[in-house]
Amino acid sequence: MGKYVTLKIDGAGIRAPKGSSVLDVAIEYGICIPHLCHVSNLSDIGACRLCIVENIVNGRSKITTSCTLGVQEGMVILSNTERIKKLRRNIAELLVAQAPNSRAIQDVAVRCGVKEVRYPFRNSDCVLCGRCVRVCEEMWQARAIGFVGRGKDRHVDFPFGVRPDFCKKCGSCIDLCPMTITPCDGPMKPGKEYLCGKCESQLSMASGAMEDTCVWCELGKGFRCARYGHQ
Amino acid sequence: MPKVKPRVKSVKDLTELCKRLRSSAKNFKSKLTICGGTGCHASRSQDVIDAVKKELKKRKLEKSVRVRVTGCHGFCEQGPLMILEPGNIFYCGLKPGDAGEIIAETILKGEVIERLLYTDPVTSNKVQTEAEIPFYRAQDRQLLAQNRHVDPCSIEDYIAIGGYSALAKTLTEFSPEKVIKEVKISGLRGRGGGGFPTARKWAECRSAPGEEKYVICNADEGDPGAYMDRSILEGNPHLVIEGMMIGAWAIGARQGYIYVRNEYPLAVKHARIAIQQAREYGLLGDDILGGGFSFDMEICRGGGAFVCGESTALMASLEGKVGEPRPKDVHTVTDGLWHKPTTLNNVETWANVPLIISNGAAWFAGKGTKGSKGTKIFALTGRVKNTGLVEVAMGTPLRTIVFDIGGGAINGRAVKAVQTGGPSGGCLPLDRLDLPVDFDALYDAGSMVGSGGIVVMDEKTCMVDVAKYFLAFLQDESCGKCAPCRLGIDRMLEIVTDITEGRGRPEQIDLLKELADTVASASLCGLGKTSPNPVLSTLRYFPEEYEAHVNEKRCPAGVCRELIEYEIDAEKCNGCGACRRACPHGAIKGKKKEAHVIDSHKCQKCGICLSECKFDSIIVT
Amino acid sequence: MSVLTLESILKGRRSQPHQLIEVLHDVQERYRYIPEEDMRIVSRELGVPLIEVYRAANFYKAFSLKPRGRNVITICTGTACHVRGSNLLSNQVLGQLGLSPGDTTEDGQFTLEQVNCLGACALGPVVVLNGTYYKHMTPSKLRSLINSVNEKGIEDTDDAKGKTQGKKRQRSY
């Protein structure tokens, strides 16, 4: 058999190399599916769930993350149905309510269509995307950090909370962290929990034409996508 | 009893051993079967067992009276229990002091001791045999019946009742494909909660490429309120081992694992003994029964994580890692333990397999409904009279289980709701109890058969509090990897907590429903996907309770602390002081023989005084 | 906690990463918690990255990173026990000893833990104290039980003598 398969994403016929993920293929072809925990050249874990798509199998729709879904011959994928948009919007709303003091997360929320946040804001400084953990393990083989704890207590930490001597001090974890990408000063002081609208891509702005590069591309260093970028 | 442990090298050896064991059992004039399961153990059955053995030794009756300590019989409320043969006499609620009388009167003279018999709560008559007890009569005990006849620490007991003959039949008469076909005809569906057709799972695993394959038994039984698997594994581990071996033969595996949750130390111990004995008898190892089949297995303990009941998390845990589920775009039957094809099934699923092979697929398929065949064990607990393990044919109405077998609610109250399926399931109200226990019927009604837990709730149970309870449980047990589950359950709990503490707003109900849909659709694994079920089912069937909490700031059941007040009825209170002494917060004051008063500022509404008061003087408003 | 004392636990398991959880169970049973030093040794001997050992010790409820008290009170908070009032028992311990789940008293006498179902549902509410199961518990019964432990001083035996909480647990069966 050949090394390629053909599949349909949003009606477009696409030829993709076997073994690639639906998300990789979509980004390659300019179909920008929102994502947060995906980083090119690192493994995909399907943690943020923003890249969900509908996989139509035998007439039934299965919702699954496109980053973990391998391409297969004849696959039919819908990445932007009303149902998917609503789910994505709700997930993004949860993320921004949890960690509003990050421009990248606020951008994620805007791009996914969040207009109002219906939950009390919290002020977390980590969204548990796992980029730092994966780069430390897969690119540097240092394994100096990892996810520690379960459920609400889950956080990224060194063994015993102390930086080990085998940490290579490469700084990759900081480079990739969405919370450090142009971090917002943020008005999230007690009693003043709201989104201030000072950042360019704030909720108050129409999410139409944006000056800057799409946050997905900025985060993933991919190419300028057609959907969210420019007219 | 044979002193030398013969290695069973062939089917003929097995059949002969079985015959030998059965005939030597006839040497005993009487038999005493005492339940030693965890439930009866908590009722101090060990003291009773010791007293009986001591008494028999004193009277030099050890050679003629056989004492067998078995696994759980399922009637835990009545423990410690004993069944005497001949006569099948059933004694319950035993104390160590009864040992002497039992042996003197019943064993030696054949006289029945009335006061030790079970009293039928409806007729108030004494019942002599197990078969006549209403709790047992309405059941169809195929799996549980074996527990009575088997000392879990004795492989010989198991062989004597025909154990391992299904394996022998399989190895001599059935090809792997034929086994799968037989299981398919039986209609067996997974008993762990998923209800996935077992034969289909085995067929997919068999056809997956690779030489190295595994079978796993999921004994993680994390659903609170469910203990069916515990009693099978504790009471009859060989049944599970035999089932796994038949499955391994069918799919082509040579290694198996039983993953037992850490909270079941007795099940771990008995399973380990069983495997050791099976190895000694040549029933695990190379060339089993001369059939050219080699297989061995190991026990692994869980670490205390509900999420490890999920198949990919369980496999991660077996590999020595943290129990985090992974996406199942590629099924575990193809890519499972150490990336090899793996068949994971629940304890009860495996336990059914030898019976299906021995009795035939048609026998199994003859019970139950069109979509749900065979029998299922349920753990009936909560505010019901007869609590314990209940095995019935699929399709039996819930009403039969709760009222005919369970005897209805305790303390003469009314049954308000029945919760099935654990934290993944839902609550069904009284008027839906005609629903049959059937995978599809319960699913359509917003609940689930799940692993088999049935919790009965009465009018003193607040349904919003129940939703809060399950959400708190799931929040504690969520692995935290994916955002919808980690953040979604947290926010659902936040909203439901607001409601129970009097801060609920009407728009929160709509938000709750939308959030529930998001978590159910977008989560990575089954824990997250089913986490909204308790909330959704209570919203569906008990909307008036939510409305009372939100609109009237009132808890109809008198449970939610911020919405209730504790008061002492001065007319009923006789000043006994029991509540004052019991109160850990010093909130009750009063002089002896004078009516006491609760200081509402100090009162934490913990409910301890209410449980102490014998004069019904404390009222909750 | 030197390598010598871990020797029996590690025997036959070296360089087998999948044995991690069983090894941690044995360490927990022996010492009532998992010391940092032991985690480093286990990481080296089993061939598991240190962060993974640390993760496993934090993830699973069976393991604790701080020493548990001499007497462990475990309250079952499963559905059946909850519906029969297991929260009253938690309130009792909070009031009597000031302990929330996971806490240990200052003097190391008691630790309170909650477990999401012990599988003895028919006899709820259930409390386990040092491996012995108590059924149909009420706040007053629990109060008496705790008092009797304080009076009798049911001591966990000395670690130096080699007897452990874990062995005590098994003996009850």
Note the quaternary state here.
heterotrimer
The helix content of chain B is: 25-40%
Helix share bin of chain A: 10-25%
CATH class of the domain at 4-80 in chain A: Alpha Beta
Radius of gyration of chain B: 26 Å
The name of the CATH architecture of the domain at 4-80 in chain A is Roll
Widest beta sheet: strand line-up of chain B: 9-10-8-7-11
What string, H for helix and E for strand, traces the elements of chain A in order? EEHEEEHHHEEHH
What is the number of E strands of chain A?
Answer: 7
- Cα end-to-end separation of chain B: 66 Å
> What coarse outline of chain A follows from CA principal-axis ratios?
globular
Q: Assign the CATH superfamily of the largest domain in chain B.
A: NADH-ubiquinone oxidoreductase 51kDa subunit
CATH topology of the domain at 4-80 in chain A: Ubiquitin-like (UB roll)
CATH domain fold name of the largest domain in chain B: Rossmann fold
| Poorly predicted spans of chain A | 200-231
Largest sheet of chain B: 5 strands, mixed
* Structure classification of chain B: alpha/beta
| Protein chain pair with the most extensive contact, residues per chain | B-C, 62 and 56 residues
What does this structure look like?
The complex is a heterotrimer of chains A (231), B (621) and C (173). Chain A has a five-stranded mixed β-sheet, covered by helices on one side. A two-stranded antiparallel ribbon of chain A has the order 6-7. Helix content of chain A is 23%, strand content 14%. With 231 residues, chain A is of the alpha+beta class. Chain A contains six helices and seven strands; from the N terminus they run E-E-H-E-E-E-H-H-H-E-E-H-H. Chain A is globular and about 50 Å long. Chain B folds into five domains: 123 residues, 3-Layer(aba) Sandwich (Glutaredoxin); 217 residues, NADH-ubiquinone oxidoreductase 51kDa subunit (Rossmann fold, 3-Layer(aba) Sandwich), CATH 3.40.50.11540; 84 residues, Ubiquitin-like (UB roll) (Roll); 89 residues, NADH-ubiquinone oxidoreductase 51kDa subunit, iron-sulphur binding domain (de novo design (two linked rop proteins)); 56 residues, Alpha-Beta Plaits (2-Layer Sandwich). Helices cover 40% and strands 15% of the residues of chain B. Chain B has a five-stranded mixed β-sheet with strand order 9-10-8-7-11. Chain B has a five-stranded mixed β-sheet with strand order 13-12-16-14-15. The longest helix of chain B is centred in the C-terminal third of the chain and has 18 residues. The model of chain B has no long low-confidence stretch (mean pLDDT 92). In chain C, strands 2-1-3-4 form a four-stranded mixed β-sheet, with helices on one face. The C terminus of chain C is likely disordered. Chain C contains eight helices and four strands; from the N terminus they run H-H-H-H-E-H-H-E-E-E-H-H. Chain C has 173 residues and is an alpha+beta fold. In chain C, a hairpin with a 2-residue loop joins strand 3 and strand 4. In chain C, helix 6 crosses helix 7. The radius of gyration of chain C is 17 Å and the shape is elongated. Chain C folds into two domains: 57 residues, no CATH class; 82 residues, Glutaredoxin, CATH 3.40.30.10. Chain C starts with a helix and ends with a helix. Chains B and C meet through helix 2, helix 12, strand 12, strand 16 and helix 18 of B and helix 2, helix 4, helix 5, helix 6 and helix 7 of C.
